[in-house]
Amino acid sequence: MYLAWLVFVILLPDWSAGAEPKIVYKATNIECIGNPKRAVNLSCIIKAINWNKAVAQMDCDLVVPLRNFSIQLEVFKKGYSNQYHPFLVNVTFNACDILAKRSFLPYGTIMWRTVKEFSNVNHPCPIENHLYARNLSIDENMLPVLPLGIYMFSLRITDVSPKGLSEYVGVIKFYFQAMEMIRIKKNIN
Ligand SMILES: *[C@@H]1O[C@H](CO)[C@@H](O)[C@H](O)[C@H]1NC(C)=O
Ligand SMILES: *[C@@H]1O[C@H](CO)[C@@H](O)[C@H](O)[C@H]1NC(C)=O
Ligand SMILES: *[C@@H]1O[C@H](CO)[C@@H](O)[C@H](O)[C@H]1NC(C)=O
Ligand SMILES: *[C@@H]1O[C@H](CO)[C@@H](O)[C@H](O)[C@H]1NC(C)=O
């Protein structure tokens, strides 16, 4: 599945035109909201590294382990009126299946590769105790080229008990800007 995605990305015309400015996805803000019965001590911050890159640091303590959780990913794009409008993606997937490699849905797999690299959520469920992500950023090479603009990825996390009761755990809203890479001309000396 990853290979299919890679081929798709390579075939996009924007990528073959070497003279085109490179598009980068720079994180601009992050919001984390938790259900206090499930997730506490939330801290989510964005730190700018340079003109083109910012990283996220996230921390959270789970009150109850995540045993069978799903993630609803909705993508929004900011319009001229400064409001966010739904943008193409609205999918729900079982995250434990992705972590256990029982499912290879493209959006889930991309997110899993990112999470595995930057966080301690790098093992099968249950997910418990302290969760963190360090220096998390979006790898442009993993996503298709998006039109320039401001986007919000909303990740809504729900856990389903063996009795089939689903409980809201929290939401992460990740804002980023698809922009042309800023090249700083070095004319020192
Ligand atoms: C939240 O943080 C406080 C202070 O560090 C700590 O005592 C508490 O155990 C944490 N809560 C959870 C559920 O880990
Ligand atoms: C995504 O789908 C869910 C369930 O079908 C729906 O409730 C929600 O409003 C949709 N979100 C957007 C942004 O369209
Ligand atoms: C995060 O980035 C900073 C600055 O680049 C670096 O000093 C630190 O070691 C990184 N932390 C991790 C856990 O990779
Ligand atoms: C896990 O959650 C899914 C819904 O996302 C549900 O269909 C399934 O029965 C649950 N499995 C267990 C073992 O609770």
UniProtKB/TrEMBL annotation:
Key words of the record: Signal
The answer, when asked if Ubl conjugation is one of the entry's keywords, is no
Matching entries from InterPro entries are given as: DUF1091 (IPR010512)
Q: Signal sequence span per UniProt? A: 1-19
Where on the tree of life does the source sit, at the highest rank?
Eukaryota
Question: ATP-binding: present as a keyword of the record?
Answer: no
**Stored Pfam families:** DUF1091 (PF06477)
Q: Which PANTHER family match?
A: DAEDALUS ON 3-RELATED, DAEDALUS ON 3-RELATED-RELATED
Name of the protein: MD-2-related lipid-recognition domain-containing protein
Originating organism = Drosophila mojavensis (Fruit fly)
Gene that this polypeptide is encoded by:
Dmoj\GI26520
